[in-house]
Design a protein that fits this description.
Length: 528
């Protein structure tokens, strides 16, 4: 990342000349400078308090760090020394002499002591805060320290921003998988304590940080698990009619946001400053609509990483309850399980990410899995491997990692009953390790399965299959599915046939064909 100072970035002064100027003009007058900045604060406070006596439910000055800092900055450019008492006037004289000699004065923003976002000033080698009471109102209004002692550091990346935001604002923070065109610059969506969602952060500093890192910091947080569907749907509804392009679903939004980070980095769009006005306007429009839309519906419990922090003292109960899949009409399959699945389930191919994958057809209408009974039991002879590991799953984590997670919405996590997640030594219990091994093995099998499907597609043996199934309630019609074209498979030359056999695609093709009579089983299950 470039060593260029970002807008409003706090950075200690290393110039010997600047340090000498501070030693000559500022350090001998610290008490007078403090009196001067107290006088500045006293002059700006009445108008600020009248303009906004309450912000987000908190009385002035709470939460008005930026407003106070900007008002102080404006007054400093025109303050009349005649309005100051003798001590403050001496502080003003020291301040002016330092600047006239070539000393620096900057408004800065960053992480204060790991606890707050803070707007302050950097006067040469000094940290000057004229809004020191905006978090804790009993603190002095003005604080002046040697900059190195202030523990005031620049925000390093979006994870650093999230840590401080969660601590300071008490926000819940999610990756921006809903507006992928904005995500490389604004990769986070915050939900505040009142439940209101907003995009963060279109400030000069954070936009410059995203650009300076060539969107790599954005890509890092966007690689996390897809944002919750409740939040995604709320944002989409709030922004309807604005012209802002929303993704069709969180998973596709995640994929598209990550792809744009890479594409724009290759195109060097991070070096194009002209997008700033457009971005700020788009974020303001989105946030105005989101604020007007009110609170987000309460989030469904998300799968949590299986760590000592979350599950060190908890246990889990095994239960064969498949109600979590009650709305699934398709379940992914792999090469290895196709011979078992074909005995009781219809196998189809579906288009996904520019290719094809096999799946078990579980229902004949949207959001109804005919294999899940009212009691949560499975009504078939074979349970797809994707369901066998539940409530464990693999979820995307930071930097492309896969995290073993547990779905707390399953109701299978307990405080006292069941099997421990971790041994007393802190090591994962054997059953947890076995679940992880099973899921990682399934993930590897999925990669082999995609290669087999790619071979089938490459040789042109997949065809559209508009499924038509007569049931007691009339004919069910399902489009968007694919099957193996028997005639095309039989007509392949020997070399192509051998290629399919080596890839495992030939077995998969035959399993799909032999599974098709199982459509009648689904029709029977759909009977009232």
């Amino acid at each position: 990342m470039s060593k260029t100072v970002l807008p409003n970035e706090p950075r200690p002064v290393s110039s010997p000349r600047e340090q000498a100027l501070a030693g000559r003009f500022l350090l001998p007058a610290l008490a007078e400078l403090e009196a001067f900045f107290y006088a500045v604060r006293a002059q700006i406070e009445p108008a600020l308090k009248a303009a906004q006596p309450v912000k987000m439910g908190k009385p002035f000055p709470l939460g008005q760090c930026l407003e106070i800092s900007l008002a102080a900055q404006e007054l400093l450019s025109r303050i009349d020394p005649a309005t100051l008492d003798e001590k403050a006037a001496r502080g003003h004289a020291a301040y002016r002499a330092f600047l006239q000699a070539g000393g620096s004065w900057r408004q800065v923003w960053g992480d204060l002591r790991g606890e707050f976002f803070q707007n302050a000033f950097q006067l040469g080698t000094l940290y000057v805060d004229v809004a020191n009471d905006t978090v804790t109102p009993t603190k002095p209004k003005v604080e002046i320290l040697p900059f190195e002692q202030a523990r005031f550091v620049p925000i390093a990346d979006f994870r650093h921003f999230s840590r401080v935001g969660e601590r300071y604002w008490k926000d819940r923070i999610y990756p921006n998988h809903v507006l992928p065109e904005l995500a490389p610059y604004c990769p986070l969506v915050h939900v505040n304590q009142q439940g209101v969602a907003v995009l963060r952060e279109a400030s000069d500093y954070m936009l410059a940080l995203a650009q300076a890192a060539q969107f790599r910091h954005s890509e890092d947080v966007l690689a996390d698990a897809p944002m919750p569907s409740e939040l995604f749907g709320h944002v989409v509804r709030a922004l309807a009619g604005t012209g802002l392009a929303a993704a069709p679903d969180p998973e596709e939004g995640r994929r598209r946001a990550l792809a744009l980070c890479r594409e724009w980095r290759a195109q060097r769009r991070h070096a194009l400053p002209e997008r700033k006005g457009e971005l700020v306007s788009a974020v303001k429009l989105a946030n105005d609509k989101l604020i007007a839309a009110g609170p987000v519906p309460p989030p469904a419990p998300r799968p949590l990483p299986v760590t000592l922090e979350h599950f060190g003292r908890r246990r889990w109960k095994r239960a064969q309850d498949y109600r979590f899949a009650a709305a699934d009409t398709l379940a992914p399959l792999t090469l290895g399980e196709a011979p078992q699945a074909m005995l009781s389930l219809p196998i189809v191919f579906v288009a996904q990410d520019g290719g094809y994958v096999p799946a078990a057809l579980l229902g004949l209408e949207a959001k109804r899995n005919l294999l899940v009974g009212a009691d949560g039991g499975w009504r078939g002879d074979y349970v797809p491997a994707a369901y066998q590991a539940y409530p464990f799953s693999l979820q995307p984590g930071p930097r492309g990692q896969q995290l073993l997670c547990f779905d707390v919405a399953s109701g299978q996590a307990a405080e006292e009953e069941g099997e421990a997640f971790f041994a007393e030594t802190g090591a994962a219990a054997p059953a947890v390790t076995a679940a992880a091994d099973r899921l990682f093995r399934l993930q590897r099998e999925q990669q082999d399965t995609r290669r087999a499907c790619a071979a089938l597609a490459r040789h042109g043996v997949l065809e559209a299959w508009p499924v038509r199934v007569p049931t007691a309630r009339g004919e069910c019609c399902i489009d968007g599915l694919f099957r193996v074209a028997g005639a095309a498979l039989d007509a392949l030359p020997a070399a192509a046939f051998e290629e399919l056999r080596r890839a495992g695609a030939l077995q998969l093709a035959y399993c799909q064909q032999w599974s098709m009579p199982n459509l009648a089983r689904l029709a029977a299950l759909s009977a009232p």
